[in-house]
Batch of 2 targets.
Target 1
Amino acid sequence: MLDVRDLKKSFAGFLAVSDVSFSLLPRSIMAIIGPNGAGKSTLFNLITGHIQPTSGRVFHKGTDITAAAPHRICRRGIGRSFQHTNIFPGLTVFECIQAAFIAHHRRGSDFWGRAERLYRPETEALLERLGLADKADLLAGALSHGNQKQIELGIALASDPDILLLDEPTAGMSATETRETIDLLRSIAEERGLTLLFTEHDMEVVFSIAERIGVLHQGRLIAQGKPDEIRADAEVRRVYLGGH
Ligand SMILES: Nc1ncnc2c1ncn2[C@@H]1O[C@H](COP(=O)(O)OP(=O)(O)OP(=O)(O)O)[C@@H](O)[C@H]1O
């Protein structure tokens, strides 16, 4: 589904990502973990075309997508949600998701169509699935942080991705919201046959949902493998996991 080969990004001589290689099988769930500044966001930005690599390649289903424009990569089926929520606070929850459907289907410039009539059933179904149906008419900006992250997940799902990149999907959530979000992600991924790649600082989240884990340290992927293998890896324990 995704093949990252020898990816490298240098910022004025500083190697933020260094020779990173890994592959994602269809329907797999992989976490990228590592301390602050390890290069996780840079790696995601390289995959989604938001920054250009110094060298290395990214393949999506066998096609080289290295350095393609972000909207093209999104349209190919690589969706993303960000660490800091990226919603329109002045729109209702319904309008946020509806706008994402409209944007994905490029209907925004449809002069004769009334935007508010478009994609209503799709929007309603997705809100229902996210557990946000009862909040559809509330302003997105007035919702809890956890609900706003769910809206963001909905915006990413509206583009019907086959891979979803999630940057700290449970950051800032309460324990209950975190548990609900993990359950939601797992079940939506299964239903839609999604491949998930996510970063996360909460090790409980990582070890409860990831089938594979990659550990970034100073830009290098120092280990990758199944959760048990990562837990037992001496170098990973030394640089990152500590007591986990
Ligand atoms: N545009 C940039 N110019 C220069 N240095 C950068 C740039 N973007 C990131 N870096 C540096 O690259 C390194 C990796 O940063 P990155 O944000 O990818 O780490 P991260 O693992 O996502 O951290 P966090 O967990 O805090 O989000 C850091 O040292 C950062 O200062």
Target 2
Amino acid sequence: MDVAVLGATGDVGRQICTQLVERRILPTTSRLQLVGRPGGASGRAVHGLRADLIDAYDEHAPLLDVALDPTEVVADVVVVAAGMTAPATSGVPMSRAALADKNVGVFTAYAEALARHGSGQEVVVVVSNPVELGVAIMASALGRQRVIGMGAWLDTLRFRREIAVSLGVRRHRVGGFVGGQHGEDLVPLWSTVRISGLDVDERRRAVDRLRGGRSLDGFAAEVASAKEQLAATSDMGQAFALIDSWPPDLRVVARPWMTHQSGAKTAAGTASATIDLVDTILDGRDIVVAGQVALAGEVLDRTGVLGVPVVVGQKGWTRVLLDQPAPDEARRLAAVAERIDAANAPWLRGAA
Ligand SMILES: NC(=O)c1ccc[n+]([C@@H]2O[C@H](COP(=O)([O-])OP(=O)(O)OC[C@H]3O[C@@H](n4cnc5c(N)ncnc54)[C@H](O)[C@@H]3O)[C@@H](O)[C@H]2O)c1
């Protein structure tokens, strides 16, 4: 199967391409399409990236080609990593609306081109932010089940790792999902957490200990306070040590936020989670992941985009697996869904 990466020469796109090749996710008979923009720096650099990848990995690299126009994108899985990101500098916030304003044109151009020139089968993985807006635009052009935003999967892998660190076990022993909106408005779904080797009572005790008597009703205030404390800490080492002292779900929000503020960005982790999702789609077996998808009433009677656990396979996602969220999860999911809808509305009206 073939993969196309839009925004291949960006920080995230380049990591995705490199990891796809280095980790031998694609056989040598498959094609990896590196997609840039005509003219300008990325249109030139995408040819250079192709040459560099061949230089490094010729023996096991898939077929590498370059596309510079949305109409030329051809693949079974299309990864959307093109578009602007918030500045990776402390004290330079960029609102979701400002980012949406920058990236709505990118989402729309590729959605229209894929709808018109695509195979009608490609699965689209949205990495670019706001990921919920990208999913909404792509899903309305291509059909909702072929489009999945990877922010919730990245948040899920972080959640599992933070829980594993707190319990002193390896990450692969921890299951559980994060839903909601990617970033500060994520929803840690504690009711879905499973820890291999622990029975139900042991798990309940472990989860209660990790949560420390908190519920998600106070989570937004905790996140706001965490950001304030981190913004007031000029020493990066101290900031990350402070994060280490917090509970796992708060660390899931705070650590990547601080990483981005440090100037390092989160390109490697984002790419790794994207590869994981792409590999799962290519694998062909139905596997449960978390992703931002366009709902039609499957959870809390919601329509609109929301991060939830879903079954994915080669045709996209098929089912939502969140029958009974805990009451505090349901309340936060509903509130976050409202915020996503409100944030997306002006752009979706504009696109109609
Ligand atoms: N979902 C996540 O978990 C997550 C994490 C980190 C970053 N991101 C997002 O990924 C996106 C890329 O981030 P980055 O750090 O790589 O940014 P970057 O600025 O380094 O790269 C963006 C790339 O997109 C390209 N691009 C812009 N418009 C294009 C178009 N119309 N066609 C083809 N290419 C185009 C640019 O030339 C550039 O190469 C951002 O939207 C960012 O917010 C998402």
